[in-house]
Amino acid sequence: MLGRVNHIAIAVPDLKAAVASYRDRLGARVSPAESLPEHGVTVVFVELPNTKVELLEPLGETSPIAAFLQKNPAGGMHHICYEVADILQARDQLLAAGARVLGTGEPKIGAHGKPVLFLHPKDFFGTLIELEQV
Amino acid sequence: MLGRVNHIAIAVPDLKAAVASYRDRLGARVSPAESLPEHGVTVVFVELPNTKVELLEPLGETSPIAAFLQKNPAGGMHHICYEVADILQARDQLLAAGARVLGTGEPKIGAHGKPVLFLHPKDFFGTLIELEQV
Hints:
Chains A, B: Residues 4-134 form the VOC domain. Two copies of one chain form a homodimer. The first copy, chain A, is of the alpha+beta class and 134 residues long. The first copy, chain A, has one domain: 2,3-Dihydroxybiphenyl 1,2-Dioxygenase, domain 1 (Roll), CATH 3.10.180. Helix content of chain A is 20%, strand content 35%. Chain A contains three helices and nine strands; from the N terminus they run E-H-E-E-E-E-H-E-H-E-E-E. In chain A, strands 1, 2, 3, 4, 5, 6, 7, 8 and 9 form a nine-stranded mixed beta sheet that branches. The longest helix of chain A has 11 residues, at 15-25. At the A-B interface, strand 1, helix 1 and strand 6 of A face strand 1, helix 1 and strand 6 of B.
């Protein structure tokens, strides 16, 4: 079921500082910042040769990463996004295997304009997993 | 400086259960478990098309992931490993930019038989970064 690692998401309290760190200290290529009010985040991509790291800063008062940053004020690894060919089939297979899908269980359109679902971290050893249909 | 994401490491309290979850629920290919007493971990690789996820279980009484699992008993994302072409050059560039390298600052031979260094998570927004010379 799992395809490529689409991205690894890291929540940060200060996106400007994080961009400077990845670009200037680590010598990585970083995309311009993009504000996504409907997703409650401002995002940049650190572009690596085989995948990308997504740096996320909260945007607005109901950001989905606000609670994470309250618990981890310095920031931290937030989730891993895997590509799947058919998100409904993946969901049904996971539900049949006893895994929990967050929210309503229906895919939403994610930050990249594609259908996504999140799986409960308690079912995957503390790791929040995003599935994205590509 | 940063090359490919070599792996994303996830610490788990129960490797057998984690393997079953990634293989049977997520339908991923998982390598056989390998015990690395000199690194204090037992490891498997979840093989994705573009990178791999390393599942780590503590081995022995001085495992470097024991403290992490005490703080995160269910498990969690532990570090990201990036490939670099020249680890000494990378280290010197990072030190000159004010970043901290863990331990003695000299590369050690990592779990894959290659020279590795770890960077202080406080300098990278709560993310533990491993550099591996390939």
